[in-house]
What we know:
By secondary structure, the protein is α/β, with parallel strands linked by helices. The chain has three domains: 2-101, Ubiquitin-like (UB roll); 160-296, no CATH class; 304-515, Rossmann fold (3-Layer(aba) Sandwich). Helices cover 23% and strands 21% of the residues. The chain contains 14 helices and 25 strands. The strands form seven sheets. An eight-stranded mixed beta sheet has the order 17-16-23-22-21-18-19-20. It has a five-stranded mixed beta sheet with strand order 2-1-7-3-6, with helices on both faces. The chain has a three-stranded antiparallel beta sheet with strand order 8-9-12. Strand 16 (304-306) and strand 17 form a beta hairpin. The longest helix has 15 residues, at 103-117.
Amino acid sequence: MGTFKLDGRDIPFEPGESIIKAAHKAGVEIPHYCWHPGLSAPANCRMCLVEIKPPPNQRPIMLDILHLDRKTGEYVPAQKPKLQPACQYPATEGQEVLADSSAHVKEARSAVQELLLLNHPVDCPICDQAGECKLQDYWLEHQAKAKRMHDEPVHKVKAQSFGPTIVYDGERCVMCTRCIRFMDEVAHDPVLDMRERGNLNEIFVAPGRELTGNYTFMVEHVCPVGALTTKDFRFKARVWFLKSKESVCQGCATGCNTHLDYDVRHNKVYRYRPRDNEAVNKYWMCDPGMLSYRRAHDDRITSARVGKKSATIESALDEARRLLGDVARDHVAIVLSAQHSLEDNWALRELGRKLEARGVFWSGAAPGAGDDILMDVDKNPNTRGVQELAPEAKPFRALLDAVRESRVTHVLALGSATPSQGADDATTLAMLRALVAIGAHHDGALTELAHVVLPACSWAEASGTWVNRTGIHQRAEKAIEPLGMSRPGWQHVVDVAGALGVDLGVKRLREVRARMAPAPDTTTSAAASPAE
Length: 532
């Protein structure tokens, strides 16, 4: 690995890396609009221009220019070094690059900013990008002066629907072409392009097409300004009122790293944003994953239930004790859940061992659509974690067979979803003498048919560990406060154990994690720099 100097600082780089990518990896930002670490580099915004010092004994490339003499008001001949786009210029050993320390670079950045803002509307009060907009940030850093052009700006399309998910505002667009390149290079559906020239440029959708598919939200995510917005988040919240926690997408076994944005004032989750992790999801997420944040609130179980009636936690525990307390242990089974965290599943596994339960099974959501980009056909975020935690666990269909044969008559289950979701599942589960379920959602037979239901926290309400399809252990942080009576699933298991006279020896989350088997070397906190 070589190094070069950027404003006097040594920056390491890999062979073939551009100056801006090496600086980005080192945590140094060179201002940019069109460059993105996951896309090709067209060098069309010119915001990342830098000055490259020539090697010794080599003449610099100079450009003849006219410079305004502010004292006389006349233009006089002058020279300046030819600046280079850092997104395309390769890093080389011993290279000396000037960015913030170059007066020529600072002047160029200010000029680029002024050019981009000549026709830009002052939509900041109503723009969803306000508060996280590159134009706002860079104006303060690199221009910070009043607009000099007072002519009528060029007007373009406003609030144009590109499809079922995305709205386009042509007047805000800076023609960085990130959206075009993403759809072509990552989504493999080149449905977007640019037309016209100069200040008449605008993005358009191919004739006869709409912007559809499983990755449309990413065009909004890569947009550095407010030109592309999602219909889901549009006009819903101001970003400066939102807080963010590092989380893990619950949509499938890929386990994409995310930022979960929520408003603490309303205890409400508003959106997901991808969080960079080259080992898992790079810089992207799919649309179903982006929308899965809604499960923090939708179809939630927020109160305990005994039979079909709401109950207190205490009365539900009393009923669980009555149903499970005096049963022969060889008729009791536990059902782990690929939809719940490793901590929740560990607690239930330990209780099953203490009870000497006849069988250990696992359940989860049914398979769904997948692709070769990010989406996995396994729609559970913790299948690998359950399999690692309890390799002896049998699939859900084995539980149904055991129930039909009366080998299992009493079940203590995590989660609600079942893989087949068929009528036969419900008919078979109805044969149980007792079904106690700990779940967060009304989306499956386990909670719908349960004799006792205890409301579990969603991933947004309790810190948890999730193991993705490749075996990487990742933590999702608690964001909002638990809804209603919800408690972490492992805590409900501890309470059920106490009601049955069993001591699991844990009372706090850190104690659960200390008792859990150590994670393999692939464990990661899933932390990375925010995606742009």
